[in-house]
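REVIEWER CHECKLIST
Item 1: Sequence provided? yes
Item 2: Single chain? yes
Item 3: Sequence as submitted:
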Amino acid sequence: MAAANDRYPAAVYAAHALKRNAVRRLVTVCMALFPMVAAQGATPAANSIAVTDCTLIDDNASYNDAATTQQDAARVQMISDELRAQLRDRSLYRVADNAPASALIGKLSASQNLNACNGCELDIGRKLGTERVGVCWVQKISNLIININLRIEDVASGKTVFQRSVDIRGNTDLSWRRGVKALVDLLAEDRDTAH
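Item 4: Structure as written out by the authors:
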């Protein structure tokens, strides 16, 4: 843009300069806000969830040796982490960090399974300030037949908003991970049809 001269009096030149600066600032602000708006748009309205570690219900626990018990415990932790990661990575929910409620979770799970504690899981959601709480449990009928279950509840009302189970065949890390993926796929489909 030319400097102020006879053709562009100083007042007109200053007005154009102010306009250009205002437009630049507006563009800068919009560019800064765009990622936040896009991220909010990618996650549904009910977007925060607390997900407890999965519980293992082993129908043959009394026959297990120490190595099997340890292996199953490691798999339960693996799929608990996998479930939270998939919910977060697929932008289905903002997953809360359970650390601020660890004392409450420890106290509750010491005396009962969190998937069958008559609403105690809702206290975890309230403690973490989430809109939803998810509980997961694995029923191991045998090394061949295992099912993984997920129930998601609305913290305010206690209403179940999602509950599904998937059967897996084979007691391997891969089959357990596939079971979690299948559950999250079902949740994603369920949310897609609800919108």
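Item 5: Key structural point noted by reviewer: The domain at 48-194 is CATH 3.40.50.10070 (Rossmann fold).
Item 6: Recommendation: ____
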